[in-house]
Amino acid sequence: MGFIAVLRQTYLDADWFGAQNPRPFADQSLEAWIQNQRLPQVFTATSWMNVLRADKIGDEFGVQYIIKGSGDEYKRINDIKATKASLIIPVNFPDAYDVEDPFDAENVSLADMKHWELAPTNLATLEKSGIAFAITTSGLKKTSDFMPNLRKAIENGLSEATALKALTSIPAQLLKVDDQVGSLKKGMLANFIITSGKLFDEKTIIHQNWIQGEPYSIKSLDTKNFSGNYNLAINGQTYNLEVSGEPGSHKAKIKVSDSTSIDATATFGNDLITLSFKPDKKNPGSIRLSGWSESTGWKGKGQLVDGTWITWTGNRTGDLQAKSTPKSGEAAKKEELGKVIYPFTGHGYPSLPTTETLLIKNATVWTNESDGILQNADVLIKDGKISKVGKILAMDRLA
Q1: Enclosing domain of residue 209
Q2: Which of 72, 245, 265, 322 could form a disulfide with 250 if both were Cys (CB 3.0 to 4.6 A apart)?
Q3: What's the CA gap between 181 and 134, in Å, rounded?
């Protein structure tokens, strides 16, 4: 209440001060306030209720705020939509509560549990309601949680197209710089990234980040993909080598059988490779190989466990076997989420109560007005307000 009062008073003071010519006195704070009204106005709200309060203040003084929400807008989505405000939304979803200890579990409210359950659906709910929003890392304990949490929002209904807009074009529009950044078209600043696949795919690699036309390399575009199965021939002995993982972060192991393997230490360049492994767990010695890539695999020289120098080859025999996926109908169904309740606490209802037209008859009515106390009076209630007080009121004539 105090903050809102100060904010309203500041608007009123600035309106009065700005209308004075010449100024009656110097006030740098009010001058700065007046000048800053030309900029996009961002209001930070700590809950859906404060989003509504902020918008009400903006309506009073003719300002359409960009409101930074708290991630619980799904609780009253129709009211949020009615504000017509654009939002900045965090993806700082709450961690699962530890309820193993029954005493700790007693301290976790239903409201907290339901927010943990429904918070990842917030962005999808905003999208379905047609509300424009940008996404922020604000509130995250670790910024590295941003992409995993955004993927969780996509798993809970947010479309990838809207997620991309919320990171690019919409923020540019909100800050009124969409003529410079936020999209890829002629005349825009050359700010973009180059990836190996869809941006929100967990396996996608970001290769380059371009800022105003200058490329910054994160992972080389020339990194070769060596994943696959290889026939490793060393001094007359044959091994099955399996190379897995993404380009630039490959892992290698020697397959002894379907259930047994030997981890290998390997480094992969675009042309050179080093590989070492222990062929016998009982013997601490390793086979160490160094070679170069060819069209069919690798070849090179190396040393056996006893130090003997040898030549070796590694011919690619095929792709890695794809992991088996459940047949149609066998995949586990996504667990159905609970519904928003009103109020958002224990014993809440599945929908907001609707106002009814009610007629209370033959009541003793204490008016607290000049009419005093009315005996055997009727009270008509419409749209949540007292519509009429009188004698022998009829619902059909007054509703």
Answers
A1: 190-221
A2: 245
A3: 14
